[in-house]
Amino acid sequence: MSEQASMVAVVTGGAGGIGRALALRLAADGWAVGVLDRDADGSAATCDAVREAGGHAVASPADITSEDEVRAAFASLREQLGPPNLLVNNAGWDVFGFFKDSDAATWDKLIAINYRGMLLCTHAALEDLRAAGDRGRIINVSSDAGRVGSSGEAVYAGCKAAIIGFSKSLARELARDLVTVNVVCPGPTDTTLLASVGESEYGAKVVAGLKRAIPFGRLGQPEDVAGAVAFLASAEARFITGQVVSVSGGLTMAG
Ligand SMILES: NC(=O)c1ccc[n+]([C@@H]2O[C@H](COP(=O)([O-])OP(=O)(O)OC[C@H]3O[C@@H](n4cnc5c(N)ncnc54)[C@H](O)[C@@H]3O)[C@@H](O)[C@H]2O)c1
Description:
Layout: E1 8-12, H1 17-28, E2 32-36, H2 40-52, E3 56-59, H3 67-81, E4 86-89, H4 104-131, E5 137-141, H5 144-148, H6 154-174, E6 180-186, H7 192-197, H8 201-213, H9 222-233, E7 244-247
Parallel strand pairs: 1-2, 1-4, 2-3, 4-5, 5-6, 6-7
The structure holds nicotinamide-adenine-dinucleotide.
């Protein structure tokens, strides 16, 4: 990928799980990576792992629900790495339970992290991404839950569906700048987030059922998602925008 002139990426939620795999893969592809996560220790560990693998990564810990923290983190990463031309909105959070048993405080938290936080990060990076022209990329990590629904994750799935609608709309707004906006939807993927879903008896049954239903017969690994993101980030993907890619071993094939 030597043709890429500007290669500065910001990965939110890069302290663990899928985000850590994204940081490692993008760095291996030559991107300088800014890790933005509320987990400072995990962020530092990701940066260490990237450096051990010969790449370049720096962290600026922030909670994506705080506009002030998000703005400060993007300013700090910009100072350390230069203006980003790739933003991967990957940070997310879920709590498993039926909607009838949930409360408004939980909805607010789910929306603040999974939807509003993504808006704040996108807005903070937008002018730099637009300035990058046809090397500008936004990749939003949604979920198959947002495409096909998921029992026990109604509000989370609603946020993930909102990400898809937002991304398609922003893809249209940014087309004149040649900036692409795409969505990657992991299916069940082997991370602490999935493990937390499987903590309850019902959640464990759901996860086991999903695993059985995956045509490829296994859970996704964070690296599976990283491959799709790396492609959409590359110059090769310059004419792909407003698209939604499921990385699920064939679990969902609709639309
Ligand atoms: N694991 C799955 O099965 C699965 C399936 C579909 C979609 N996803 C999505 O993939 C993305 C990554 O999930 P994961 O499985 O790696 O989860 P994870 O819990 O392993 O990692 C999520 C990361 O986001 C960070 N984060 C959470 N809230 C934050 C906040 N307010 N501010 C800053 N950082 C915050 C966490 O510290 C963590 O490092 C999420 O958007 C998730 O919804 C995961």
